[in-house]
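Q: Please design a sequence for this.
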């Protein structure tokens, strides 16, 4: 054991040998300070060996073993190694990026006294009462707990409509696991959007037994919670996707809530899917995992079809007073919309307002209008640095690029022909808000989008305002559909879902379907049947027909069959090589060489490089190369040597990265 193998945060697929006189086998996973490229950097010991390829005169000694914090457990290291292999990402970077930022510097951790965090005011929303489980809930708990007692890996896919009582099922299972002295990991998509779930868990189990892990925790708190993970439990860990990369000893159960949510996939650096990796961790820990959603992903539904996941359904709302929403399609050909809203939609909103009920208006675009348009020469405001349009933000009197953040003042005249009659084209949240205030004077309207929900607590504040009855109409983007514990509303209007039906992105329909079911799920509180109005020019489309029948599973089946016919994921497996740079020719040349550097075997298809869906952002051209295979292991067997060859290609002036199981191609 003369040499230490040290993982470093460098983009090389290898570890580095260092000498260390006093390292012990227990130091595996320990943080160390080493000199690399003449600078002190943080490393993590990931192995020992008796030999080294590095010539003796170039070997250096470790500067310090930082034993103030416990080493990363071996099973965690082993899992991170799997991640690195699966995503074809340097192991050293996976290890270092899995640490909380506060532990990534090459210094000893100083446990400082932290200010007691201001306690949030207790959640005043209803639903904290513990209910006796209803028979379907109980049956589900019984089925899943069969895998708890003799600790057995199994994946349970829980498809339960909004309000069917999935959370109560999670809590009942968690209680069993804690009683057996083991830990529970509860993954949520975004901590901001699930305050009620977090509050319910805390109310149920008490503060002391709950740890949270998400990127919004201040540096010190995040390190403390990371350290607390490794203390003896039992406890519940509530985390966002990054929690899946943390040490998780004694796991008895993993729950992934809203498993379809795209925020489980990291979109930069190590592009991991926390949901997929959660399944891997459950298998490693030999414990069951529950994937819950009202609108499960096609990936998970396919596994259920194949019998690898057990599918369970909760089809009725748990609250006996709740009634299912009434879903209606408004044919835009018969009822043309002005400023986004058709007359019947407006009438329904007016009616809810007069009854003192709350409504929600859902649109896919923030800003006032998607763009500014010249009526005489058809010029449209485009971002000079991206391939996107500039979005009109009327209140700020700006045209903004949502891709690169560029802000320009709104031109008075058409830069092309000088015409002064520039018009907004299309609708955004701001335009709807303005149209609603005109049509419904006196209504208290609140806009909910990335522009108004910037602050950490804004979503919680919005919820509080809704619960306090201070808002009549909330106008918002998909944030509202993702607000998983948004209070129930009497009426929901969906403004313009049609674009997704004809999108070039083969996942657009799946996403729209999920969003529509999620927003529809917000309608109807105890005793009041909610109304959902969907404005569309294609009311006969099977997607909308499935929505009115409230048959998510039925249409998901149709989509799955389509994917099989077309040879698309999840029936096939993909990886995308992304490259970007200022000089488009270089980007293309890189992907061309990548395409040629290693011939794929039969069963793997490497497509020609094409411009990315958004072909330019902030002056950088973006191209991509798609690799597709029916067989996952065949694909990965080829990606490994291919990546090695790619690392040897000249790539100056550009960035490239591989995305395995990409979510947007
Ligand atoms: P989901 O997580 O599936 O959206 P929840 O667990 O939040 O559903 O439950 C929806 C509502 O029904 C909550 O107000 C909850 O308190 C209530 N509820 C859940 N289970 C029961 C039950 N067995 N009996 C009565 N009400 C219940
Ligand atoms: Zn013009
Ligand atoms: Zn731009």
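A: Design:
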């Amino acid at each position: 054991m003369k040499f230490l193998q040290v993982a470093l945060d460098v983009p090389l697929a290898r570890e580095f040998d260092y000498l260390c006189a006093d390292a012990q086998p227990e130091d595996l996973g320990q943080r160390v300070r080493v000199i690399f490229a003449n600078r002190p950097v943080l490393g993590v010991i990931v192995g020992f060996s008796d030999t080294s390829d590095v010539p003796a005169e170039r070997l250096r000694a470790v500067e310090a073993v930082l034993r103030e914090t416990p080493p990363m457990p071996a099973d965690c290291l082993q899992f991170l190694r799997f991640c690195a292999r699966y995503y074809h990402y340097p192991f050293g970077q996976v290890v270092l990026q899995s640490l909380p930022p506060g532990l990534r510097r090459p210094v000893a951790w100083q446990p400082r006294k932290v200010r007691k965090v201001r306690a949030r005011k207790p959640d005043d929303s209803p639903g904290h009462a513990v209910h006796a489980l209803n028979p379907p809930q109980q049956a589900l708990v019984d089925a899943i707990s069969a895998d708890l007692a003799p600790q057995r890996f199994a994946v349970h896919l829980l498809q339960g409509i909004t309000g069917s009582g999935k959370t109560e099922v999670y809590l009942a299972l968690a209680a069993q696991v804690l009683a057996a002295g083991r830990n529970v990991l509860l993954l949520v998509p975004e901590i901001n959007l699930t305050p009620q779930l977090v509050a319910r868990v805390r109310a149920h189990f008490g503060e002391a037994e709950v740890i949270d892990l998400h990127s919004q925790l201040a540096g010190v708190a995040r390190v403390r919670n990371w350290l607390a993970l490794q203390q003896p439990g039992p406890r519940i860990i509530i985390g966002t996707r990054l929690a899946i990369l943390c040490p998780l000893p004694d796991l008895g159960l993993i729950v992934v809530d809203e498993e379809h949510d795209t925020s489980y996939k990291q979109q930069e650096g190590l592009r991991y899917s926390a949901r997929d990796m959660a399944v891997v961790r459950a298998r490693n820990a030999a414990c069951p995992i529950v994937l819950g959603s009202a609108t499960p992903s096609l990936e998970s539904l396919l596994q259920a079809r194949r019998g690898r996941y057990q599918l369970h359904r909760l089809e009725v709302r748990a609250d006996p007073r709740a009634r299912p929403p009434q879903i209606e399609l408004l044919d835009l050909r018969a009822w043309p919309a002005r400023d986004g809203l058709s007359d019947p939609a407006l009438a329904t909103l007016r009616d809810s307002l007069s009854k003192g009920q709350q409504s929600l208006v859902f649109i896919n675009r923030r800003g006032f209008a998607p763009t500014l348009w010249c009526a005489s020469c058809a010029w449209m405001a485009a971002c000079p640095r991206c391939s996107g349009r500039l979005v009109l933000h009327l209140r700020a009197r700006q045209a903004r690029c949502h891709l690169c953040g560029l802000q320009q003042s709104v031109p008075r005249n058409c830069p092309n022909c000088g015409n002064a009659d520039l018009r907004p084209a299309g609708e955004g949240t701001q335009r709807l808000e303005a149209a609603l205030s005109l049509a419904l004077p006196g209504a208290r309207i609140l806009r909910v989008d990335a522009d108004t929900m910037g602050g950490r607590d804004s979503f919680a504040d919005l919820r509080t305002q809704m619960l306090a009855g201070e808002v009549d109409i909330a106008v918002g983007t998909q944030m509202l559909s993702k607000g998983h514990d948004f209070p129930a509303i009497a009426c929901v209007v969906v403004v313009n879902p049609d674009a997704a039906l004809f999108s070039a992105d083969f996942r657009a329909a799946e996403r729209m379907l999920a969003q529509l079911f999620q927003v529809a799920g917000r309608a109807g509180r105890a005793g009041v049947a909610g109304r959902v109005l969907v404005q569309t020019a294609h009311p006969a489309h099977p997607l909308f027909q499935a929505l009115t029948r409230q048959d998510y599973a039925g249409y998901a089946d149709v989509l799955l069959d389509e994917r099989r016919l077309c040879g698309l994921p999840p029936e096939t497996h993909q990886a995308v090589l992304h490259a970007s740079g200022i000089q488009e020719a270089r980007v293309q040349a890189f992907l061309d060489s990548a395409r040629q550097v290693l011939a794929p075997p039969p069963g793997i298809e490497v497509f020609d490089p094409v411009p990315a869906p958004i072909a330019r952002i902030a002056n950088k051209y973006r191209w991509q190369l798609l690799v597709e295979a029916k067989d996952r292991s065949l694909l990965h067997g080829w990606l490994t040597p291919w990546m090695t060859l790619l690392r040897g290609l000249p790539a100056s002036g550009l960035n490239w990265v591989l995305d395995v199981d990409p979510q947007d191609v």
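Q: Thanks. Anything notable?
A: The chain has 17 helices and 28 strands. Residues 326-369+426-562 form a domain with the Rossmann fold fold (CATH 3.40.50.300).
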